[in-house]
Design a protein that fits this description.
Largest sheet: 4 strands, antiparallel
Strand content: 15-25%
Radius of gyration: 21 Å
Number of strands: 12
Bound molecules: zinc ion
Strand order of the largest sheet: 6-11-10-9
Distance between the termini: 47 Å
Shape: globular
Length: 268
């Protein structure tokens, strides 16, 4: 077995690879040990995913959607109580209550005595754009999405490893080689959106994340990733997005990932 990034033999590797970080609620999109070797896995965890999860938007989105960390912890967020005895606190949203870090007795009694009737925290709608961090995360995730489509078949995995037109994006993800890869970022639905799709599913549902490829010309793959309503698109062949932008114009700006049978039934 070989690693889809560094192409080295990876039979001894033990870690599964989460295509989207566990800390963003991903439990099912994973690759078995060795698909990404332990050393590439470690590299991505420390150099790409950790700094990305520390971006203000991702902290904020995890807080407001109560997505727990890998270790099951709730994510705190700086919250302001506008009162002379109030101030800034790290607030945790728990299932049916609130908690604050440090000595919170004063703030709790102020709330109980109804002296404080307002608390404020920032809502950050989208990640800072564009950043090298998100761009390299998308490059990494695109290569892993190819491997996911191979469903563990070694002949297909070998094909992906030997696709030379994917080497630039592979090396950009793993080694930061070459120039910055452009990507597109936009919100396509709110975090609270519910969907229904009578053709595919009987019940209404929410979408945490989804991914697919848009193929505009043969061998020209655009990777499309949606996390909590924000769509990110990167070209797997080169750092430019011209054909995709043209495709958007011709398709009324619809998202390539939305199924025609799928309808929005509720949104904020
Ligand atoms: Zn590797």
């Amino acid at each position: 077995m070989r690693c889809i990034f560094c192409k080295q033999v990876s039979d001894a590797s033990k870690s599964v690879q989460h295509i989207i970080p566990e800390s963003l609620g991903n439990k099912d999109l994973i690759l078995p040990p060795g698909t990404v070797c332990d050393s590439c896995n470690q590299y991505f965890a420390i150099k790409i995913e950790k700094p990305m999860l520390e971006m203000k938007y991702f902290q904020n989105v995890r807080f407001r959607n109560q997505i727990k960390s890998k270790k099951g912890r709730n994510i705190p967020y700086k919250t302001l109580f506008p009162h002379k005895e109030g101030g800034w606190f790290d607030m945790y949203l728990l299932d049916h209550s609130l908690a604050f870090s440090g000595d919170d007795s004063k703030i709790i009694s102020l709330i109980k005595d109804q002296k404080i009737n307002k608390m404020m925290f920032e809502v950050i709608d989208q990640p800072l754009f564009p950043t090298a961090n998100v761009s390299r995360f998308l490059a990494k995730t695109a290569i892993e999405a190819f491997a996911l489509k191979a469903e563990g078949k070694s002949s297909l995995l070998n094909e992906i490893i030997d696709m030379h037109h994917l080497d630039s994006i592979r090396e950009y993800a793993r080694y930061g080689k070459g120039r910055f890869w452009n990507y597109n970022q936009r919100r396509i639905y709110s975090e609270e959106t519910r969907f229904e799709d009578p053709v595919h599913l009987p019940e209404s549902y929410e979408i945490l994340h989804e991914l697919d490829f848009l193929i505009i010309e043969p061998d020209m793959y655009y990777f499309v990733l949606v996390i909590m309503g924000i769509e990110y698109v990167i070209n797997c062949g080169d750092p430019e997005l011209d054909l995709y932008k043209h495709w958007l114009l011709e398709n009324d700006n619809r998202s390539p990932i939305r199924r025609f049978s799928e309808r929005i039934i509720y949104k904020n």
